[in-house]
Amino acid sequence: MTLHEPDIISRLQFNFFYESQILWDETMSMSISEFLEREPDTQVIVIAGRGHLAYGSGIPNRTFARTGKSYSIVLIDSEVEEGIADYIIFPGPVKGAIAPRLMVYVKMEDKGFKITGFPGHSVSETAGVKTGDILLSIDEIEIKSIADIKVHLHYKNKGDIVKLKVFRPVEEAEAEDKGKDKDKDKDKDKDKDKDKDKDKEVKGEEILIDVTL
Questions:
Q1: Is this model's pTM higher than 0.90 or not?
Q2: What pLDDT shows up at residue 173?
């Protein structure tokens, strides 16, 4: 039987996946075993994916081979098959809490996250945040990424107040080199280069705004 190239690649991919799975199971098993050697009277609860637990062929059996300690396998929403687990739990649906939002559209720029707009009934727009403002901090926590905002708001409730610090540009002007001599022909090339490299100086002010979520 001759294997075509796609078949070979597919088989190699499976082999790599299988080897990775075994390596992960062995590493987890070794970590559990070493812990139990240090703390022999401790009950260990391992949270792992179904593929590492079902039928005991992953972490459970490997740990038992190392320690000889008994174990129980608990799966969630699994097929009911003989030997797949000791217990199968079928939990009911849970309505998760939704963290409040600033309700702004932003774009990452050099100076930070610039407000580009708002959805309808935005709490930030109602509080006084404007398009063009740049987000600097929330409750004195510097905003370096969107994750900084999301993590902070995760622990807030609807109706809570957060303090936003924003930079509000007032005007944008070009800072020119006043020392160049336009009357000298020999400086023309230098002047052209300086014109191309003009830096934009953004003027504005930092503002604190209380936003009710």
A1: no
A2: 37
| Three-class SS state of 186 | helix
Residue 204: closest CA among 72, 106, 65, 111: 111
Helix (H, G, I), strand (E, B) or coil at 196: helix
Identify the CATH class of 105-212.
mainly beta
Place of tokens 């079928």: 90
d(CA 163, CA 124): 11
pLDDT at 142: 94
161-175 and 141-142: which strand pairing?
Answer: unpaired
The bridge status of strand 87-89 relative to strand 74-76 is parallel
Q: Where in the chain are the domains?
A: 5-89, 105-212
What is the tens place of the pLDDT at every residue in 64-90? Answer: 999 999 999 999 988 889 999 999 999
Lowest-pLDDT range of 11-15, 89-93, 154-158: 11-15
- In angstroms, rounded to a whole number, what is the distance separating the alpha carbons of residues 164 and 210? 6
Query: For residue 64, what pLDDT is reported?
Result: 95
Amino acid at 142: E
CA 44/CA 91 separation, integer angstroms:
22
The rounded distance, in Å, linking the Cα atoms of 69 and 20 is 25
State CA 30 to chain mean position distance: 30
